[in-house]
Design brief:
Elements (H helix, E strand, L loop, with lengths): L3 H13 L6 H28 L13 H4 L8 H17 L7 H10 L9 H11 L7 H16 L14 H11 L7 E3 L6 H11 L5 H8 L2 E5 L2 H13 L8 E3 L16 E6 L24 H12 E12 L8 H12 E8 L13 E8 L5 E6 L21 H8 L7 E5 H6 L12 H4 L4 H27 L1
Parallel strand pairs: 1-2, 1-4, 2-3, 4-5, 6-8
Antiparallel strand pairs: 5-7, 6-7, 8-9
Helix pairs in contact: 1-6, 2-11, 4-6, 8-9, 12-13
Length: 475
Amino acid sequence: MPNISSVIKAIQDIMRKDTGVDGDAQRLSQIVWMLFLKIFADKEDEAEVMKDDYKSPLEEKYRWQNWAQDDEGMTGDELIDFINNDLFPYLQNLENDSNQQALIIRNIFQDTYNYMKSGTLLRQVINKINEIDFNSSEDRHLFNDIYEQLLQSLQSAGNAGEYYTPRAVTQFIVDMVNPQLGEKVLDPACGTGGFLACAIEHLKKQADTTKEGEILNNSIFGIEKKPLPHQLCTTNMILHGIDTPINIRRDNTLSKPINNISPADRVDCIVTNPPFGGIEEDGIENNFPASFRTRETADLFLVYIMKMLKPQGRAGIVLPDGSLFGEGVKTRIRQELLETCNLEVIIRLPNSVFKPYATVGTNLLFFKKGEPTNFIWFYEHKLPDGLKSYSKTNPIKNEEFNSIRSWWKNKIENDLAWRVSIEDVINNNYNLDFKNPNKSETKIMKTPQELIARIRDNNKQINAILSRLEEQLKG
């Protein structure tokens, strides 16, 4: 079995020799469309064995098995001419005929290009890709890790780095939102599908039968605006077992009037890292009620998320510090959030979590729709001992969230966790930028009255926990 990491590196090295591929973004786009066709071919081979009546949406001539599989097959000018003038026009105009697979393939290739100019080098790349068997669970598992490395390589391709959210963050958010089989899970800014991939793995633990697997397949929804991450996300979903990811749409989530969202459109869970720091195109804000109109992308997504959740629906999202404070529209959006949703927890992350893509302060917000907020828990996530900041080579790790997972079960104040009442938030003009009051340097500044109030509050929390334990023991 090949070493998949070395296969991918060899492919990148071959592409660097080709004069048509310019930079990391084009190189990644080139790899992705070929990997997509190889993955699709392997899935077809599997389907032909499992289903007697399987029919490919592609004509025989255009199936990977018939033009790419043979290592001694087409090469040179013949191969380039076939791909540019025959294969791509065919895939880009593939008739739907109610076949969902055909629709997915056509969507993938609508804005896809073959950048390579040398048919000889292209044949070498294809032969390396043929060394990977995507029906082998071991190969597929190993490729998931390499796939993440490919995504991270986007950061050197300008603003493409905005697509990547650290796996530890996506995993923690999905764990805390805890989607259940049968619930609809949406990422309205899905990028390359990191949150959705985590949600799929989370739901697989609940799906034991074929029918439950079908329920899972129809539970995952994503929307992505840009063609390259949409391709990556669709491929990622197939790798994670969603054979026909028809619910991964290429669209601008914010481009439709928010009042047109019907009860049937709403979902149970939203997990996402919406774009922030950006400004939407002119006119997008007109899709929102007048009191919430802004061109700040993160704020518009927050309004959209509140609207898209079903009653009792849950969300876990990443937001920048700038969404926690600010006047005018920002204040009204936060007020709406606190009056229509229970904002349960805000995790305050170090500034370097998204480094090198962004260095602004970020927060994880967890809320449930349908009941107002009475108080908010805050937790300050600290850098590991001895680490001054996260980096590309030293990213945030999943196990760093374990202490928060433990705290979450029985929330109580400590040096890193504190609680703020809705009255304090309202008196602060709905500003959510509360600093940790429990740091050792600030404790000595507490008045006796504040200390007494803190003790009483802690006692209430302890009594509540004891009551829950007594009920469990009786049960």
